[in-house]
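Saturday, quiet lab. Running sequence design on the C-alpha cells for the scaffold JK sent over.
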C-alpha cells in the first residue's frame, strides 16, 4: 500500500506557521487583510469563499467581503478592484471564479494590481514564474510543491509528468517542478500514447478534470502520484482524477481525495496573503 500524503496535516502545519507570522506582523502594526469578491451566489463558489474566510479567521488575517449581485456590470466590478488596489489597508484581492458570463474574466484578472494578486493569475505573476523571478504563484501547484517537500520526496533529477496544461494548474505546476530541477513533461488531450508518457514518471501530477482517469496502467511501479482533481460521484462521494483503489498498491506515495491537494490550495492562499503584507 502506497504512503498516504496527508494534505490535511501538512496544510494545518502551514497555517500554524502563518498564524505566528501574522501575529508578528500585527505586533508591528501590520494587520494582514484580504478582500474577497464574489459576484452572484453560485452555491459551490459560496462554499469556497466561506472556507477561505474561515482559514483567514484561523490564521489571523482580516477578510473584507464584497458580495455583489449576479447582474453587477463588469465596469462596477473593475471600479471596486481599482478602489481596493489603491487601499493601503488591503494586502490581497481575490475574485472568486467563475464569474457570470457577461463579465470577461481576463480583464478582471488583469485589473488586480500584481502586488495584490494573491491568486497568482495575473500575467505579470505568470511571467515572473516563467523567468524564475520572485512573485505570486498559483495556490494549487504551490501547495503540491509543499506536499512533496514536506513529505520528504525529492524532485531534483526526477522524471515529472504533469497531465493537464491549464493556466491555473498544469502550466504553473510544470514551471515549479522545473524550478525544483525536475525533468518535466507536460501532457494534454493531444498527447499521443499518453500511457507511455505517464509510465515514465517518478512523480505524476494528474490535473485532467476527468474522474478516475488515471488507472494503474498509467503509472510506473513505485511512482509518486499527486491527484489534483475533485469530482462528486453519483453516490455523492468525492473522487479525484486518479482511480485511487486501482493505483494505491502500485504507487509508492499518493494523495487522497479528499484530504490531499484540496486543503493545500487554501493554505497557500493564506501564505500569499502574508507574503503580500510582508512586502
Ligand atoms: P482544465 O479543464 O482547465 O484542464 C484540464 C487539462 O486536462 C487540459 O489541459 C486538457 O488538455 C487535459 N486533458 C483533458 N482530457 C485529457 C485526456 N483525455 N488526456 C490528456 N489530457 C487531457 O482543468 P484545471 O486545470 O482547472 O483542473 C484540473 C482538475 O483539478 C479538475 O478536476 C479541477 O476540478 C481540479 N482542481 C482542483 C483544485 C484543488 O484545489 N484541489 C484547484 C483547481 C482545480 P487540453 O489543454 O488539450 O484541452
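Result came back. Writing it out in full:
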Amino acid at each position: 500500500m502506497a504512503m498516504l500524503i496527508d494534505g490535511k496535516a501538512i496544510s494545518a502545519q502551514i497555517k500554524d506557521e502563518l498564524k505566528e507570522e501574522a501575529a508578528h506582523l500585527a505586533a508591528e502594526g501590520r494587520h494582514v487583510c484580504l478582500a474577497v469578491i464574489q459576484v452572484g451566489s453560485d452555491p459551490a463558489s459560496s462554499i469556497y469563499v466561506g472556507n477561505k474566510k474561515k482559514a483567514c479567521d484561523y490564521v489571523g488575517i482580516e477578510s473584507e467581503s464584497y458580495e455583489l449581485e449576479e447582474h453587477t456590470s463588469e465596469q462596477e466590478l473593475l471600479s471596486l478592484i481599482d478602489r481596493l488596489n489603491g487601499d493601503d489597508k488591503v494586502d490581497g484581492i481575490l475574485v472568486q471564479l467563475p464569474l457570470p458570463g457577461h463579465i470577461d474574466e481576463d480583464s478582471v484578472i488583469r485589473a488586480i494590481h500584481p502586488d495584490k494578486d494573491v491568486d497568482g493569475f495575473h500575467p505579470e505573476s505568470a511571467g515572473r514564474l516563467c523567468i524564475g523571478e520572485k512573485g505570486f504563484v498559483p495556490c494549487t501547484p504551490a501547495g503540491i510543491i509543499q506536499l512533496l517537500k514536506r513529505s520528504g520526496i525529492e524532485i531534483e533529477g526526477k522524471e515529472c509528468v504533469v497531465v493537464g496544461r491549464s493556466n491555473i494548474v498544469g502550466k504553473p505546476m510544470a514551471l515549479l517542478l522545473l524550478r525544483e530541477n525536475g525533468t518535466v513533461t507536460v501532457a494534454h488531450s493531444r498527447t499521443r500514447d499518453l500511457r507511455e508518457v505517464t509510465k515514465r514518471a517518478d512523480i505524476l501530477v494528474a490535473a485532467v478534470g476527468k474522474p478516475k482517469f488515471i488507472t494503474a496502467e498509467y503509472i510506473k511501479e513505485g511512482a509518486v502520484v499527486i491527484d489534483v482533481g475533485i469530482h462528486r460521484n453519483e453516490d455523492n462521494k468525492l473522487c479525484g482524477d486518479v482511480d485511487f483503489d486501482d493505483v494505491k498498491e502500485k504507487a509508492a506515495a499518493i494523495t487522497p481525495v479528499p484530504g490531499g491537494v484540496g486543503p493545500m490550495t487554501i493554505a497557500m492562499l493564506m501564505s500569499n496573503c502574508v507574503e503580500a503584507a510582508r512586502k
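Notes for JK: The mean pLDDT is 97. The longest strand covers residues 33-39. Ask whether to fix the surface positions before the next round.
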